[in-house]
Amino acid sequence: MARIGSSDLDVFPLCLGGNVFGWTADQQASFDILDAFASGGGTFIDTSDSYSAFVPGNDGGESETIIGQWLAQRGSHDDLVIATKVSRHPDFLGLSGPNIHAAADASLGRLGVDAIDLYFAHFDDEDTPLEETAAAFDELVTAGKVRYYGISNYSAERLEEWLAIVEANGYARPVALQPHYNLVHRNTFEETLAAIAERADLGVVPYYSLASGFLTGKYRSPDDNAGTARGTGAAKYATPAGLAIVDALEEIGAAHEASITTTALAWLLAKPTVVAPIASASRVEQVADLLAVAAVTLTPDEVARLDAVSAWTPPVE
To answer: Catalytic: 181?
Structure first.
């Protein structure tokens, strides 16, 4: 188990992404995936109130609703940590104080829980003063509607500003950071956010851990899986540099009897402050490779090899 930042939330070192629930996984498939994850020792589930408003015919909140139905069927969630997010639901856009409170109440209703274990500010809202947003999260924690909160998709400058505000006002501090971070998207996190996360004791929960599926090894050319829901996002990485990363993952994984998927997640877990990478499964058969990361520890030499093959330096302008 891994501790999320300065909280008392101990979680399995892989977070199951709920973005596919109500999208590429219907209710029954979602229940099967959740059952397999929990029965295999998984305890950490991530979603958002906006999942999956991006799908034609959906309104947002579908993922939370499915998770809530599963929790009701299960009878308890005391052994689980459920994370959700605010700012992108069509009915609750932005991070004004009243909006955050209303969105949290709606999420609590869909999830069917008394408190949200971990509540993320999903995307920065530069039209709302950060003081107002930070105060609203503090109020939710004080009211017992949220146990802990985190920050996602904020620049280093805005994250520093948020931390200064909570320090100055005595507000509840964030405990987690959810950045875009994986072997083909390293620089933004490593160069601007990693040091802040370490200094502020923020548990890092990276999303797009598998680069929309590219780091599973199933995209070996731009035409692979063309037309699938996530194919366009993944196949763009099928360049010589990207495929060299996959080849290294395959070779290193073989030494651990682990898949490319598991090995890519293990690289993230080897990084300071990373608590649990987020990865989703649209089919129950995919869950085993996610759970397997708990049993795979890469050697320093293996981590260094993956660091080297995935290093990218922006061109000098």
So the answer is: no
* pTM reported for the whole predicted model: 0.95
In the set 51, 207, 208, 219, the catalytic residue is 51
The domain spans of the chain are 2-310
The 3 state secondary structure assigned to the chain is: CEECCCCCCEECCCEEECCCECCCECHHHHHHHHHHHHHCCCCEEECCCCCCCCCCCCCCCHHHHHHHHHHHHHCCCCCCEEEEEEEEECCEECCCHHHHHHHHHHHHHHHCCCCEEEEEECCCCCCCCHHHHHHHHHHHHHHCCEEEEEEECCCHHHHHHHHHHHHHHCCCCCCEEECECECCECHHHHHHHHHHHHHHCCEECCECCCHHHHHHCCCCCCCCCCCCCCHHHHHCCCCHHHHHHHHHHHHHHHHCCCCHHHHHHHHHHCCCCECCCEECCCCHHHHHHHHHHHHCCCCHHHHHHHHHHHCCCCCCC
| Tens digit of each residue's pLDDT (9 = 90 or more) over 285-294 | 999 999 999 9
| Domain range 2-310, CATH architecture | Alpha-Beta Barrel (3.20)
pLDDT at 76: 87
